[in-house]
Write a structure and sequence with these properties.
This protein folds into three domains: 4-25 and 240-369, Nitrogenase molybdenum iron protein domain (Rossmann fold); 29-235, 3-Layer(aba) Sandwich (Rossmann fold), CATH 3.40.50.1980; 401-438, no CATH class. Helix content is 46%, strand content 17%. The chain has helices spanning 11-21, 32-45, 47-57, 71-80, 83-101, 135-138, 143-156, 175-183, 194-203, 220-229, 254-265, 280-293, 300-309, 319-329, 341-344, 362-367, 403-419, 423-438, and strands spanning 4-7, 108-111, 117-124, 127-131, 160-165, 188-191, 213-215, 234-235, 243-248, 272-277, 312-315, 331-337, 351-356, 393-400. Strands 1-11-10-9-12-13 form a six-stranded parallel β-sheet, sandwiched between helices. It has a five-stranded parallel β-sheet with strand order 6-5-4-7-8, with helices on both faces. Strands 2-3-14 form a three-stranded antiparallel β-sheet, with no helix packed on it. α15 links the parallel β12 (331-337) and β13 (351-356).
Length: 439
């Protein structure tokens, strides 16, 4: 069996959907203590701890002086990449930049006739740290992570943007990552990864000054470290394994469905790939397509395990039921491979991103469509949004009262203050009113 098939209306199907509703987890608790130790080491020993961990797990030759990527290394990287890569990089960056520019918020003011002014002041954080995974020892550079995290921070106006990423055994960073960083204006780059990189960003070392916001994907150690430093810094989200749910009717192409299920399954054995369909024939043909396409994948064993252990095809009676179940699951990536996907878009309440139509694979959203691919997982799409410009912004309230305005509101303020037993609050208004009456 490649993937299980269940009817949602059965007891087994209801149990499966129920488990999906409650799938949120902080991750593998087995690394919690190890991560806490790493963070404490970096807090107390600074650069020395970062270098020790980097030598042990990544680059045996690393030194404190070698932690920061030099300008020469960045310039060398530019000469090493292909022109075709540069063209694709710039196309993707422009699409992402164009989309995220629409997200930028403005400060605003409201006025009342008595001279009261209220409003909101929107300002960027001073600094942000971007974590980029190593990608199989640097051989599969996650360029899209640099763009998806770096560009919104740039648009927000963050003054200091820092990238950390683990080096290979020779202490090098894949040239594609360095060029991508340069493309979005990031020149402060450090060769460190995992929990010690997150700790350095959160608490700072002599070489790596602390930041205000930390974003970016990573393994369980990175996720746990972000969880443990959350509060001292802002993080983008607690991220789980990648997810897709495809809603398909009888006209959907099983080859497309299978390809998109596999595109999620190849990420990780814990990835979640689901199909909700009204058609038994589409379900059966999708299973056949999965078996046909699996042998072509470089990560076929990972994908097969993911489908077998976590994947499912769920049969429903109609698209109304399918959309109800989809909203209950609140998936990261929701694909609507149905006759008229725009008709069903208004029914979507909870999803990280929605992909409409058979020719809109989730992979387009990962790379060049423009919207951010850092999305809420594990059902948190019910309460959370994609990473965006707002991740790097903070808002301050603005309040200004005239003399007339304070007189108008004085009794109301004092009444509420007395109810709450806060006489100093009451007095702070009274002293102004009394003084104004004497003048």
């Amino acid at each position: 069996m490649t993937i299980r098939t269940l009817r949602v209306e059965t007891e087994q199907g209801r149990q499966f959907v129920g488990d999906l509703r409650n799938r949120f987890s902080f991750g593998d608790g087995g690394c919690r203590d190890s991560v806490a130790t790493i963070i404490e080491e970096v807090k107390t020993r600074g650069d020395e701890a970062v270098v020790d961990y980097t030598r042990k797990f990544d680059a045996p030759i690393m030194t404190v002086a070698g932690l920061r990527v030099s300008d020469e290394e960045i310039e060398t990287a530019v000469r090493e990449v292909e022109e075709s890569f540069l063209a694709t990089l710039r196309l993707a960056a422009e699409r992402i930049r164009c989309f995220h520019e629409r997200e930028m918020e403005d400060s605003w003011l409201l006025t009342r006739d008595d001279g009261t002014v209220t409003g909101r002041l929107v300002r960027p954080v001073d600094s942000a740290g971007l974590y980029v995974p190593g990608g199989q020892g640097g051989s599969t550079p996650l360029v899209s992570s640099v763009l998806m995290n770096g560009i919104p921070a740039l648009i927000a106006g963050v003054g200091r943007r820092v990238m950390v990423t683990p080096p290979d055994a020779q202490g090098r960073i894949n040239p594609a990552l360095l060029v991508a960083a340069r493309e979005v204006g990031i020149t402060e780059i450090y060769k460190c990864g995992s929990a010690w990189a997150i700790a350095a960003l959160a608490y700072g070392t002599a070489t790596i000054p602390a930041v205000d916001v930390i974003v970016g994907p990573g393994n369980q150690y990175v996720a746990e470290a972000k969880h443990q430093v959350m509060g001292r810094v802002r993080i983008d989200m607690i991220a789980g394994p990648s997810e897709v749910l495809i809603v398909a009717d009888e006209e959907a192409d099983p080859a497309f469905i299978a390809a998109d299920l596999l595109a999620q399954a190849e990420h990780d054995p814990q990835a979640l790939a689901l199909l909700l369909t009204t058609s038994e024939e589409v379900a059966a043909r999708t299973v056949a397509q999965l078996e046909r396409q699996l042998p072509r994948l470089s990560r076929q064993e990972v994908a097969r395990r993911s489908l077998f252990e976590r994947g499912a095809i769920l049969l429903v009676t109609d698209l109304e039921e399918a959309m109800h179940v989809a909203n209950e699951i609140a998936i990261e990536h929701l694909e609507l491979q149905v006759r008229d996907p725009w008709q069903w878009l208004p029914r979507v309440r909870h999803a990280g991103a929605v992909f409409l139509g058979g020719f809109t694979p989730e992979a387009a959203g990962d790379y060049v469509a423009g919207p951010n691919h850092v999305l809420p997982t594990m059902g948190t799409a019910r309460i959370a949004s994609a990473l965006g410009v707002e991740t790097f912004l903070k808002k301050s309230s603005i309040i200004s009262y005239s003399r007339e305005a304070l007189f108008n509101d004085a009794d109301h303020i004092r009444l509420l203050a007395r109810l709450e037993g806060l006489t100093a609050h009451e007095r702070s208004v009274t002293v102004r009113v009394e003084q104004a009456a004497r003048s």
